[in-house]
Specification:
mainly alpha; about 85% helix; Transposase
Length: about 60
Protein backbone atom coordinates (compact mmCIF):
# COMPACT_ATOMS: atom_id res chain seq x y z
CA UNK A 1 0.00 0.00 0.00
CA UNK A 2 2.66 2.49 1.02
CA UNK A 3 4.69 1.53 -2.03
CA UNK A 4 1.73 2.39 -4.30
CA UNK A 5 1.29 5.72 -2.53
CA UNK A 6 4.97 6.48 -2.97
CA UNK A 7 4.84 5.69 -6.68
CA UNK A 8 1.72 7.82 -7.09
CA UNK A 9 3.32 10.78 -5.34
CA UNK A 10 6.48 10.33 -7.40
CA UNK A 11 4.45 10.35 -10.62
CA UNK A 12 2.54 13.46 -9.52
CA UNK A 13 5.78 15.24 -8.70
CA UNK A 14 7.27 14.43 -12.12
CA UNK A 15 4.13 15.76 -13.84
CA UNK A 16 4.27 18.96 -11.79
CA UNK A 17 7.93 19.49 -12.68
CA UNK A 18 7.19 18.91 -16.37
CA UNK A 19 4.29 21.35 -16.25
CA UNK A 20 6.57 23.96 -14.66
CA UNK A 21 9.20 23.46 -17.37
CA UNK A 22 6.55 23.94 -20.04
CA UNK A 23 5.40 27.21 -18.48
CA UNK A 24 8.99 28.45 -18.27
CA UNK A 25 9.58 27.45 -21.89
CA UNK A 26 6.49 29.37 -23.02
CA UNK A 27 7.66 32.45 -21.15
CA UNK A 28 11.14 32.20 -22.66
CA UNK A 29 9.62 31.90 -26.12
CA UNK A 30 7.53 35.00 -25.46
CA UNK A 31 10.81 36.75 -24.63
CA UNK A 32 11.93 35.75 -28.15
CA UNK A 33 14.63 33.28 -27.14
CA UNK A 34 15.46 30.72 -29.82
CA UNK A 35 14.18 27.15 -29.76
CA UNK A 36 17.74 25.98 -29.08
CA UNK A 37 18.13 28.36 -26.14
CA UNK A 38 14.81 27.30 -24.62
CA UNK A 39 15.64 23.63 -25.10
CA UNK A 40 19.00 24.01 -23.40
CA UNK A 41 17.56 26.14 -20.60
CA UNK A 42 14.66 23.85 -19.77
CA UNK A 43 15.88 20.42 -20.81
CA UNK A 44 12.85 20.03 -23.07
CA UNK A 45 13.48 18.51 -26.51
CA UNK A 46 13.76 20.86 -29.46
CA UNK A 47 10.77 19.15 -31.06
CA UNK A 48 8.58 19.82 -28.01
CA UNK A 49 9.80 23.43 -27.79
CA UNK A 50 8.95 23.93 -31.47
CA UNK A 51 5.40 22.71 -30.79
CA UNK A 52 5.16 25.08 -27.81
CA UNK A 53 6.44 27.94 -29.99
CA UNK A 54 3.61 27.36 -32.42
CA UNK A 55 1.11 27.49 -29.52
CA UNK A 56 2.62 30.71 -28.16
CA UNK A 57 2.59 32.43 -31.54
CA UNK A 58 -1.10 31.69 -32.20
Amino acid sequence: MLSNLGRTLDKMERKAVEKGKIEVAKNLLKMELTVDQVSIGTGISKEKVEKLRKEVIM
